[in-house]
Design goal:
Helix 8 links the parallel strand 8 and strand 9. This protein has a four-stranded parallel β-sheet with strand order 1-12-10-11, sandwiched between helices. The chain has a four-stranded parallel β-sheet with strand order 3-2-4-5. The protein is α/β, with parallel strands linked by helices and 284 residues long. The radius of gyration is 20 Å and the shape is flat. It is built from eleven helices and twelve strands.
Length: 284
């Protein structure tokens, strides 16, 4: 059995930066308790390890309001402006680990909405990154996550709008949705805010899935970018398997399988990737 490993698999820059930020605060061993606002990243193995080291999670605004002191680390997905202001008002020590690519979207949305433009976010409704982006708009804001959503909204908004994207959204779907708006005489601003690492990872996943007999995608069940990789892989390789750790193996692979591809979402630590890779080498 041969393995084709994706070069882009694993932590992206923004995720690594956020996780490293938390571990750096733990290493300082100060008296101030450490909190993250929401899950620092969408990987429960990492979150569990941080919790074992004393890091606590603020689940929502209510948790934040009753907090009296401590260090609060803003997750890689970012937060809405009102959440950031509340942290400041409570005089908490704030460490902003928002991914720089997400922070850029906040700036775009804030500026464009102040200029009177409606904001259209192409992304997953309810995802923390999208919720954070929404919170930086000063006027009307719409979230579209499907071609049907785009077609419906495009018929209602003709101009004076700005389109942005969740950083981890499917690049091809983003382009298809933008095409729907432009075909309906949309006359606004389009900013492709899908990060380069996401686009590279998606392209590589599709190329590898075309070549292999079976594809393994590693990531947390709550990871949006991993779900996109699974979707892309399944379009090219019917034998695509989603696993969170090596414990989800073994797989019921076809007898004709000779080449297995492996990739991983942006929130998947290297040790989990290596464990899956080693398991496949030894057992298949």
């Amino acid at each position: 059995m041969k393995i084709k490993m994706a070069k882009s698999a694993g932590f992206c820059f923004g995720v690594r930066r956020a996780v490293d930020t938390v571990y750096e605060q733990i290493a300082k061993k100060g008296d101030s308790p450490i909190y993250t606002y929401g899950l620092i990243i969408h990987n429960m193995e990492v979150v569990k390890d941080l919790e074992e080291k004393g890091v606590k999670i603020l689940q929502n605004e209510d948790d934040l309001r009753i907090l009296e002191s401590g260090t609060v680390i803003i997750r890689a997905h970012g937060v809405a402006r009102n959440i950031h202001r509340l942290m400041q008002e409570k005089n908490l020590k704030i460490i902003d680990a928002t991914c720089p690519f997400v922070h850029r979207i906040h700036q775009i949305v804030e500026k464009e909405s102040r200029d009177g433009k409606k904001i259209i976010i192409i992304g997953n409704l309810g995802h923390p990154e999208v919720e954070g982006i929404t919170g930086w708009a000063e006027g009307e804001v719409f979230v579209v996550e499907s071609l049907e959503d785009a077609a419906d909204l495009a018929g209602k908004i003709k101009d004076n709008a700005c389109i942005v994207s969740q950083t981890t959204f499917n690049y091809n779907k983003f382009q298809d949705m933008v095409d729907i708006f432009t075909e309906k005489c949309y006359n606004g601003t389009v900013v492709n805010t899908i990060c380069n690492a996401t686009e590279e990872r998606q392209i590589e996943t599709g190329l590898i899935a075309k070549e292999v007999d079976a594809m393994i995608v590693i990531g947390d069940i709550h990871s949006s970018n991993t779900a996109k990789l699974v979707e892309i892989s399944r379009n090219e390789c019917a034998n695509t398997y989603f696993v969170q750790t090596f414990k989800d193996l073994p797989l019921d692979l076809p007898d004709t399988t000779t080449l297995i591809g492996i990739t991983a979402g942006a929130s998947t630590p290297n040790n989990i990737i290596e464990e899956v890779q080693n398991y496949v080498r030894i057992n298949f």
